[in-house]
Design goal:
Oligomer: single chain
Strand content: 5-15%
Strand order of the largest sheet: 2-3-1-4
Radius of gyration: 23 Å
Distance between the termini: 34 Å
Length: about 230
């Protein structure tokens, strides 16, 4: 997304619109609150938007509100913890993001948040020896290939796993939609709240959730998983 914005949107596009920093922050809130984006992925987006003229305070709003909220999280909190908790959660994030965004734009020196233009960085492309750049590129390719290979091997390992409906001991179910450690912890913690479950272990790479308990009620397990915004696979 950052690369597409860099290529398609003209420089100083946001600045040319003449929007006040506060209005930019409000627009960022509307965009980032339902957006599913992690803390790492939001950094290049914020950086490229600043290069396009977005105020640093508005970029901070994206960095704070983007990773902290998304449509799935909002739905889960509303269903599990109630609308009052959801309102307090969103209000604290919105207020915190706006307050710190205003501090950055109106109280701190603008020079602190200047980003060197990418055209200037182009003159520094020989600052590292070629063998380091080539070696780093090869290493990165090998690491990416190994990641895909390990993922493929794990899928082969669990491909023929039979998910039984026995009510005693450890059982395995398939949950779709888990994409990060937050999702993993979310599923594990909420399933552990069920009286008949002793322990839960979720595997992000395969989507397999191992449940340890007695007289397991799989209908309640399914209801809990689906209520969190994920999908209990039959």
């Amino acid at each position: 997304m950052a690369a597409a914005i860099s290529a398609l949107i003209p420089d100083d596009f946001v600045g040319g619109l003449g929007l006040s920093p506060l209005l930019q922050m409000l627009i960022m809130l509307v965009i980032s609150i339902p957006l599913y984006i992690c803390a790492t992925a939001s950094v290049p987006l914020a950086a490229i938007l600043i290069l396009k003229g977005l105020s640093p305070g508005a970029a901070l709003v994206l960095l704070m509100a983007g990773p902290a909220t998304n449509a799935a999280t909002i739905t889960m909190i509303g269903n599990v913890m109630g609308k009052k908790t959801l309102f307090g959660y969103l209000s604290s994030i919105i207020a915190g993001a706006l307050v710190f965004g205003l501090v950055i734009d109106y109280l701190l020196p603008a020079s602190w948040f200047e980003i060197i233009n990418s055209s200037h960085l182009a003159h520094e492309h020989e600052m590292l020896p070629n063998w380091i750049k080539l070696g780093s590129g090869i290493l990165l390719i090998l690491l990416i290939a190994n990641g895909y290979l390990q993922k493929y091997l794990r899928k082969l390992k669990v491909k023929n796993t039979i998910i039984t409906n026995d009510t005693m001991g450890k059982q395995k179910v398939k949950v779709e939609g888990m994409t990060c450690n937050h999702c993993k912890a979310n599923v594990e913690n909420n399933l552990k709240k069920l009286d008949f479950i002793k322990d839960v272990t979720a595997d992000l790479s395969t989507g397999i959730v191992e449940i340890d308990g007695e007289n397991i009620d799989f209908s309640k397990v399914k209801e809990t998983v689906n209520g969190l915004g994920y999908r209990y696979a039959e």
